[in-house]
Amino acid sequence: MILRGIYVVMGLGLFANGIYMFFASESWYHQKILGVEDTGPMNIHFIRDVGVVYAIIGIGLLWSSVNLARCRIVHIGVTMFLIGHALEHAMEILTGDLPRSHWYIDAGGVFIPAALFLLLALPPVWRRVNPEAAKAGESSPT
Question: pTM here?
Answer without folding.
Answer: 0.90
